[in-house]
Amino acid sequence: MGGERRRRRPGLSPAVVGAGAAAAAAAAAALVIWARPRDPTFHLISVALSAFRLNLPVVDVELTLTVHVTNPNVVPIRYSAATVAIFYAGSPLGSARLQAGSQPPRSCRVLRLPARLRGAELAHRAADLLADAARRSMALDAAVDIAGTAQLLWWARRFDVHIDSHVVVDPIFLDVIDQQSHSETHLHLASSSSSS
């Protein structure tokens, strides 16, 4: 018995364990950087008049905004419904409704948003609107906050996007003349497990 050699059980050396842990950490960091959410882009393509009702002194206008949305992320996104606030000369003019939805990774989509302009505000701004019509240039501002999730494997990462847009349209033919948009994305650090 004294001459029997004890068999050594195969095991991993601390160097191999350390190298494996470092490789896993590097892979996780690369995955986080690769999948880091990027700001989606929203571009107004066109404005179409849906309804125009004149009940003096109030004008009721309904529009359809056609918006091109790009998801530059490598993961799909889901977003909740939101209201787009529309401003004219700093005053609230109306709103458009963004329905809840989702978008595949690295994709583009065209959305049609119904918008309604406030008749009382239009009547109050009649002189300014007539001057803009004569110049064929009307500046509008829009702002929206969108909440959503970006899905990566079994993690759902929540985010908020705030978008400000400045759009110049021809109030006669409703053509988009110029636009500038700025968006900021806030990524929530706590992730949640996906239920789907």
UniProtKB/TrEMBL annotation:
Q: What is its main location?
A: membrane
Q: Which PANTHER family match?
A: LATE EMBRYOGENESIS ABUNDANT (LEA) HYDROXYPROLINE-RICH GLYCOPROTEIN FAMILY, OS05G0199100 PROTEIN
Which GO CC terms are listed, alphabetically? membrane
What InterPro entries does UniProt report for this protein, alphabetically?
A: LEA_2, NDR1-like, WHy-dom
- Name recorded for this polypeptide: Water stress and hypersensitive response domain-containing protein
Mark the transmembrane ranges.
Answer: 12-35
For whether the record's keyword set contains Transmembrane, the answer is yes
Q: Which residue ranges does the record assign to the Water stress and hypersensitive response domain?
A: 47-161
> What topology in the membrane does the UniProt record assign?
Single-pass membrane protein
- One GO term of the biological process aspect: response to desiccation
Q: What is the scientific name of the source organism?
A: Ananas comosus (Pineapple)
User: Per UniProt, which keywords does this protein have?
Assistant: Membrane, Transmembrane, Transmembrane helix
Q: Where in the cell is it found?
A: Membrane
